[in-house]
Design a protein that fits this description.
Elements (H helix, E strand, L loop, with lengths): L17 E3 L18 H14 L3 E4 L12 H14 L4 E4 L19 H5 L10 E5 L3 E2 L8 H4 L7 H8 L2 E2 L3 H13 L3 E6 L2 H12 L8 E5 L10 H10 L5 E5 L5 H10 L3 E4 L15 H15 L6 H8 L8 H7 L21
């Protein structure tokens, strides 16, 4: 993204879109006070986050035994109820479905491609499904301090090892087919990117005409194969994202608020919730709703407005697709592809 002299003025930035992730699939009941278990609790978590200022809901579903659900019927039921309870929220299904291990010591891994493709068939359909690009280690505990997980299920050695050794399976065989299915069902992909190499892969897909549409993405700074917490890496990622993209910052544990504060100041958007973080200060628990409220206060302190649900939909350009590669490059503020025989830098076309 390019920054002009007035780019840091909040009145010149997009209104802040707050993603809430209150379903914490890696945790078990008792790990946090606000983990929903019943369907009513799932719906109430959405309502509470929306009332606090969140306009995007990142969705997982938990069975009554506390484990993450992989049943499409559960997702269908929750989606139907959410459409009624929070009609203004952007409903975003977590594309891993649920990566929590079923039993202590079992592998924590994402599901088969066929199962994940079924997310494009959920009824009523979600606005978005998150999509990983590129198989990568996802060692979510690498950046956790002992105090972060003390007293939780992940502190148990077998569970800790399961999450330490987790891998995101997201090679071209998966993401090329998944993008096609999402487009067919008019579901916007929300790209979850671990680092610049994955951003470059997405940009190549755009230039080759594989993907033609709005570029909505998260910078996932959770370590363990994904980006870490170095602020220079965060700023560089923001700099490299195309001007027309919509970027959200995602971090973990007590780094969530500092990383998001940088993102708010630079015009990006934010994600919070118990899926990412359980803490305010060291040793002080913080609910998903309190994390949303914290982002609202930080944004207000620097003068940046909070997007409403309809405004978030407009910022995300939900329901829009672009006609071809040239339109996608132009709408994202990217220079056109090289024409045969052209030498030197490519410049944006100017219509006179």
């Amino acid at each position: 993204m390019h920054f002009l002299d007035d780019s840091l003025y909040p009145e010149n930035q997009e209104k802040l879109v707050i993603q809430a992730a209150p379903y914490g699939p890696e945790w078990l009941p008792g790990d946090a006070d606000d983990l929903p278990v019943t369907m009513d609790e799932h719906v109430q978590a959405a309502v509470d986050c929306h009332n606090a200022g969140a306009t995007v809901l990142h969705i997982h579903v938990r069975e009554l035994d506390g484990h993450g659900s992989k049943r499409m019927s559960m997702f269908n039921e929750l989606m139907a109820r959410l459409r009624e309870a929070v009609p203004d929220m952007v409903l975003q299904i977590g594309g891993s479905i649920s990566f929590a291990p079923e039993d202590e010591g079992a592998d924590a891994k994402w599901l088969s491609y066929d199962t994940r493709h079924m997310l494009a068939e959920i009824t009523p359909r979600p606005d978005q499904v998150t999509i990983a690009i590129g198989t990568s280690q996802m060692n979510i505990v690498e950046l956790f301090d002992d105090e972060d997980i003390e007293g939780t299920s992940i502190a148990k050695p077998a569970m800790y090892q399961a999450y330490r050794d987790m891998v995101v399976e997201a090679g071209p065989e998966f993401y090329l087919e998944h993008l096609k299915r999402l487009r067919t069902n008019d579901i916007q992909p929300h790209f979850q990117l671990a680092h610049l190499a994955q951003l470059e892969t997405v940009e190549r897909m755009i230039r080759k005409g594989v993907y033609s549409g709005p570029l909505v993405l998260n910078y996932v700074a959770i370590g363990g194969g994904f980006a870490g917490r170095h602020p220079a890496d965060l700023v560089e990622f923001i700099r490299r994202v195309p001007d027309g993209a919509v970027l959200t910052i995602e971090a973990s544990m007590r780094a969530v608020a500092p990383m998001n504060t940088v993102g708010i100041a630079l015009g990006a958007h934010v994600r919070v919730g118990n899926e990412d973080n359980l803490w305010r200060r060291k040793g002080e628990r913080m609910s998903s709703v309190q994390q949303v409220e914290q982002m609202v206060r930080i944004a207000d302190a620097v003068g940046r407005d909070i997007a409403t649900g309809p405004e978030a939909r407009e910022i995300y350009q939900l329901g829009e697709w672009y006609a071809d590669t040239d339109e996608t490059l132009a709408r994202l503020g990217m220079v056109p592809n090289r024409r045969p025989g052209h030498r030197g830098s490519m410049l944006r076309d100017v219509t006179r």
